[in-house]
Amino acid sequence: MAPRRSVFAVLDMGSTKVVCLAVKVNDEGVPEVIGVGYKPSEGINGGAIVNKQSAGCSVLSSIDLAEQVSAQTISQVYVTVSGCGVKSSNISNEVLSNVHEISERDIRRIMLQTYEKFSGEDIAIHNVPMAYHLDNLSNITELEGLYGSKLRADVHAVTVSKLALVNIEQCITSNNLMMGGCVAESYASGLACMTDDERELGTLVIDMGSNYTSMGFFYKGKYEHADCIPFGGHHITRDVSYGLCVSLKDAESIKVTHGSTMLFSSDDDYPIEICDVDGELKCVTRADIASIIRPRVEEILEFVKSRVDEHRNVVSKVVITGGCSKLLGIEKVASSILNRQVRVGTPINLKGMWPEYVGKPEMSAAVGSAMLIARTFYKRQCTKNNSHHPGSLEKVLRWIITKVEA
Questions:
Q1: Where is the SHS2 domain positioned along the sequence (predicted)?
Q2: Bridge partner residues of 38 (DSSP)
């Protein structure tokens, strides 16, 4: 659903943090961050609501902070979705009629068929046209003005669990907010971290979050595939906690401060003093920490590789982002396992972004979501190619809630 005014908010609901960006769009459709709310997350696991009350408090505290800074009242939010059973489907929609001139109405009609096809356990949140065909003509780039009777569209649909989405929507609306729509985490991160050339040539974005690692493949400028695996930074933290006999809180601090995937000879001589769960002080080396972290990182990347091989995407390059991408040397480990050129991706610097959040990989999804909403609803030249149709998601959400509550 299109924003009601020039100010909107995006909400990145992760397992460890909730980020709210209050965004204002100027007359040229350029987004500017006017408020940031960054709070610890409770009641959320892999993007799904596991405790409505706790999740609601986390969401409200993040939004309240963004409102205070921006001096704006936030009434409508767009949510970044990770986990929640994110899947990709390639489908074909078709419309038959008498010979006539193809209009925008015909294009909307054929694209809206996607939402009608997903009415069971999953719901489509992205509806990306890959190719149009009209009668005997294939791979048409511009339909309007052409005449024909049989219109077909090849579509990439990204779906999530219907019940997970309903729970998110209920968490939002129960706090007197309106949910404008959802954005898949890998879609948003790809927009924020990739160059136009990377999206054109075939690049995989890997967003390594706390409980989930999201993957998105871009080719010829389009979002062609989405996937996720239930492993992330929290699993690395647990390994550090177990391996060093420290609390989860201390393990997270050790991972963030000294985390590395590379073993260097000098690391054996670099002592780090820690306090174990019994309150006793002891020394470990950076090499000790790396020897715990690296196997888990390799395991996660092996899962990613198996998913990439399964779908046979022509990946020429890989961009890693998200909180775990800050682990020292992770791009070298990824390059070795995936056998691709790999770089760590940081989000584009949106106008007005707070200095402490500029270039932070953990902000990629929030920044990309803001870019997508601004491009979709505020830039007319992008309307024909965007994957959202104003009002369609709202209608589907209303239908789902009616069915669930019945």
A1: 8-193
A2: 19
Q: What CATH number has the domain spanning 194-343?
A: 3.30.420.40
Kindly report whether the global pTM for this prediction surpasses the value 0.90: no
Return the CATH number of 90-154, one of 1.20.58.1120, 3.40.1370.10, 3.90.330.10, 3.30.1490.110.
Answer: 3.30.1490.110
Token duo for residue 174:
């129960």
Q: Are 24 and 369 in contact (CB under 8 A)?
A: no
CATH superfamily, domain at 5-83+160-190+347-400 = ATPase, nucleotide binding domain (3.30.420.40)
Give counts: helices (H), strands (E), the chain.
11, 18
Consecutive 10-residue averages of pLDDT for the chain (406 residues): 75 92 87 93 88 92 93 90 88 90 88 84 90 90 87 93 90 88 94 95 94 94 93 95 94 92 70 88 90 96 93 87 94 95 95 92 95 80 42 46 44
Per-domain residue ranges of the chain: 5-83+160-190+347-400, 90-154, 194-343
Residue-wise DSSP of 182-246 = EEEHHHHHHHHH--HHHHHH-EEEEEE-SS-EEEEEEETTEEEEEEEES--HHHHHHHHHHHHT-
Q: Which tokens belong to 44?
A: 């959320």
